[in-house]
Amino acid sequence: MTTTDHSVPTPAPLRHLMRLLVGSCALLPALAIAGWDELNMPVGVTDLSADVHGLHMRIFYVCCAIGAAVFGVMIVSMFLHRKSRGVKPATFHESTKVEIVWTVVPLLILVAMAVPAAKVLIKMEDFSDSEMSIKVTGYQWRWHYDYLDEGIAFYSALDAEQNLARQRGADDALEQFGDTYLREVDNELVVPTGVKIRFLNTAADVIHSWWVPDLALKKDAIPGFINENWATINEPGVYNGKCAELCGRDHGFMPIVVRAVTPEEFQVWADEKRAETLAAIETQHDPRDLPTLLAQGESVYGANCSTCHQAEGQGIPGMFPAIAGSDIATGDIDAHVAMVLHGVDGTPMNAWSGALTDAEIAAVVTYQRNAFGNDTGDSVQPLDVRAARSTALNAATEFDMGVTQ
Amino acid sequence: MSSTGANAYYVPHAARWPIVGSIGLFVFFWGFANWLNDRPLGKETFFLGAIVLVVMMFGWFGDVIRESESGTYNNQVDTSFRMCMMWFIFSEVMFFAAFFGALFYARTFSGPWIGGDGGGGAPVTNELLYQGFSYVWPTNGPSSLGGDFQQMGWFGLPLINTLLLLTSGVTCTIAHHAIQHGDRKKMVRWLGATVALGFIFVGLQAYEYYHAYHGLNLKMSSGIYGSTFFMLTGFHGFHVTMGAIMLLVVMLRGMKSHFTAKNHFAFEAAAWYWHFVDVVWLGLFIFVYLL
Amino acid sequence: MTTDSSHDGVVHHAPGEHHDHDHDHHGPAYGLMRWITTTNHKDIGSLYLWFSLIMFFIGGAMALVIRAELFQPGIQIVDPMFFNSMTTMHALVMIFGVVMPAFVGLANWMIPMMIGAPDMALPRLNNWSFWIMPFAFAILLSTLFMDSGGPAGGWTLYPPLSLQMGDSFAFVIFAIHFMGISSVMGSINIVATIFNMRAPGVTFMKMPMFVWTWLITAYLLIATIPVLAGAVTMLLTDRYFGTSFFSAAGGGDPVMFQHIFWFFGHPEVYILILPAFGIISSIIPTFARKPLFGYDSMVYATASIAFLSFIVWAHHMFTTGMPLAGSLFFMMSTMLISVPTGVKVFNWVATMWRGAMTFETPMLFAIGFVIMFTIGGLSGLMLAITPADIQYHDTYFVVAHFHYVLVPGAIYSIMAATYYWIPKWTGNMYDETLGKWHFWISTVFVNVLFFPMHFVGLAGMNRRIPDYSLQFADWNMVASIGAFGFGFSQLLFVWIVIKCVRGGKQATDEVWEGARGLEWTVPSPAPYHTFETAPDITKYAVR
Ligand code: HEA
Ligand code: HEA
Ligand code: CUA
Ligand SMILES: [Cu+2]
Asked: pTM for this one?
């Protein structure tokens, strides 16, 4: 553990600190000033999220009232019934009557809380009549969205620039991102407003959890299982969320951005997206020269592999093997491609066949074989990868472009 | 010893075996973990630890037996031992409960869910992830892990084993009655029968496993069925082995004229353990084999 | 705050009024072997307590690594992987290495004295229960130095993530088995002691609350630790022996692990609080100079909490996609636990009511406990409300909840117990002024540390992350300042304890003016062997 230079310039640190200290000493008043809303659960933009928020406030006030009553009695007692005031202790030590009271009254309070809670819960679990289904798959560490009816599918990961800035030792100022730090993605999930959308959560590797507070949605994405969830968004806007279940090293860096637009806008977007994907499919197997492959490979590596194999390909001894000088990355090309396609069972090295296109795999393999001093001079073409997919002993899953052609 | 009064609660001093036991367990676990990770000397360390543990048990129980035979323990100490054994067995019950729980959960929740049966996301799980897979117990899952296999039937070996264990329960009780009447010879004889039945059970189970692997293609890795089958019966088999060894030790002690009609806690402890193993087997027979 | 000596609760007897009852031929041996081979419940109690204190600093140092990294947004100090293993290890060390051993240590010291027993029922086993702990933690902590790093999947060890751990995986699993053996043996010993070793006349309904709460805790341990052992065994075989308990491909289910884990895990959190309830129920009557209000209902409430704790586990899993009926059931059963817990809180308040209170350090910690535990309990109640919990789950709101019940809850009770009984253990009074300083500094900082977490949690900061968006920066900085303040003020505690062990004002036998119970009838320090013959309990108040 070495303390590297703080990458974040602390703005006027002293003033900052003072404000905080004063704030924390007088927490409650400070809250009123700081604006309660920023520190509370958002009301959100669906009927359900408003219900949940209402429920939250209601139970919060009940708890405050109970706390105030209990602590109030304690404080009064501590003031009145202290030896220094010369009181003689009473000797009573039971009373069936009050004990029944303080068993029954809390019970009644609980019932008063449970009934509205059950109502909201029942509403939440009503999955009928959804008009649109999106399959959400968690990967280490990004999301895959599959619009089951529209035939669109894509990955969504932390914005590349932020991904660089958040690395340890990077000295970018985080302030440049302002409120969006760790909240922006490369591909937003675009959805229409006013439509009951069914989300189908699952995962490819470990458990993730798809959480968007403004939609009051949080449901685990469990490998091998699909969980349902739904939302009808009332207002257009951009809603942020995060992966909420510990999913490994970069769990903190799996943001979600939902952009809700009107149904008309959504249609336009969907058509564009589909056309874009089709174009990419058409050209995906075109041959590329080495510099192009290397350039693409570097970015694929940075986005997908460097979290484990590290930026300089040095790996983390004992956990993630180095790519630099690796027998596989300097040896047989086919073995290298197969390794990336299939991964290694029972290790964090996942099969990438479903997550990367032929072109991306070609690029990243080429990159690994030429970077970090692995100067093999080899290059791999997308067509080679396609060939490898079909010849591989247990054929790798096709990369799912999501477009039904 | 300080506890002068004949009836005082015996508090041992300067216990040397526990630290040996701790070191033994440490070496044992350390070795096992290294072994599993294919690190050098893992296996050797593991066995070294096991040996230390065996030595510890001999030493520790040896001390206790000597103290017991020399009349150091009063009735209250005896009660402590009884409670200790009772709650130890209860903790073992809970250990098995975890595995039975896994079996029930897999059969009633996760299996049907994958098969598309149930509320929530079950139908869509089956539709999108496991198209065409329908759930029937026993299963090795949608990926057919370990390949096609056959279920282990209840008739035949398992039934024979059930009868063996039930019989051993009876022989054990006869032995108990014998020692309660002070008939040590009879006790040893019936205990011998019990131990023999126990070891035959273990032998038959080993054969059953052999048959499962080579005849039925049923392995640990045969999905959830293989997992629950082998873990439940395996841990049970291990407990039978331990129980049989305990009974064997009691029998040998009986041959050395230990135990009287009144004082035979070691016998009872082993017998309780044996009955516990017996009851677990009945659970296994019903839930793993029959249903 | 200094004590006005005419009002403090200390009974001033002339020192040395009692003759040393230790006419035993075998007082403590000397040197290292004394501690390694001891079968004396007081020695073993001390060993547990020292062990726990050391572990508190290790686990706390890990927490400080977490808080240092979270001081500012961005990643400054540790790799995210190491951060995750700090989170994981911090929790494992604090729960299994600090709170549980401290409670067992207190049980060892106090239970035999409270029920008039010569020692624990099975002294040799008792020795083993303790001497397992250092070895188990040696294994656990050693994983931090392995190439693969320590466990980084959270203390809950959810598969499939936990199966991705490097070589350290097997070591962690075995360390848990190892500690489990210790806990189960320790609990069996306590059960046997309480059932079998009570002095004649100490009936069940005369036992001090601490004994009762421990009896029930011991049952929770015996019933749940083996389940944890089973769960981690399944992890082990999934990883190394090809089973597929937790993999859908083979017909298993990762969520199944969560069910089994929380079947252990939820009773476990009551294991971490019931003995605390017992301690508080001993301290408050003493300093209120008034018998505990509602003893019977306290006993029944404790038993109800323990019973209910077995049927609420899935409240940790509301987002895993449970059927509606399941969610409703677990929501309501969880809410129900508030009722018996409320009974306890109300009984404590009623005990204080119209007493004649003084506020020595143990009482301060006890009152701090009642207030801050209640805050944590009420946020727990909010978490129980399923639709709301779906939003709270895995955010810092949960972190705030459980730290309120664990730090100013369980940890405070342990501190309170130490101040309360240390005069009996050492024969010396601790430094009251320093004790009060310790309380006030800790209490200010612990709230600065954990209170803001409620808000960042509600505002959307999830747990187990090494870096966060800039919106959360302010309150994280506050929390980190609180953490360092709280952490370093615990050095004061260590100093007070050491000072007290080495000397100080001679304590009387009764120590506290309002104290009742057998432990106050023996000399201070308590002789190496107490009650070799059963005390005549008609002469004393047992509770
Ligand atoms: C000492 C430990 C301890 C204790 C005592 C408790 C006590 C309670 N806990 Fe907590 N809990 C934890 C430790 C503890 N918890 C931990 C460690 C976790 C996180 C684990 C992890 O994920 O890592 C957790 C998580 C946790 C969750 C899961 C949150 C999530 O992950 O989404 C829930 C949900 O229901 C919950 C609920 C409760 C409830 C209802 C109580 C109740 O027992 C509280 C009862 C007390 C009161 C209610 C206050 C006093 C009562 C009154 C003054 C009477 C008046 C009251 C009424 C009228 C109702 N806890
Ligand atoms: C009894 C249990 C217990 C206790 C006492 C504590 C005590 C503390 N805990 Fe923790 N904590 C948990 C149980 C506990 N915790 C659990 C169960 C989790 C969940 C883990 C998971 O998600 O898997 C958790 C998680 C957790 C998190 C969330 C991590 C995350 O989600 O990423 C944080 C963050 O602030 C935190 C902080 C602290 C702090 C600051 C303290 C302070 O009270 C600590 C006080 C500090 C000291 C006592 C340090 C003293 C040290 C020095 C003065 C330095 C000198 C050093 C030496 C001499 C060696 N804890
Ligand atoms: Cu994905 Cu956390
Ligand atoms: Cu719980």
From this structure: 0.91
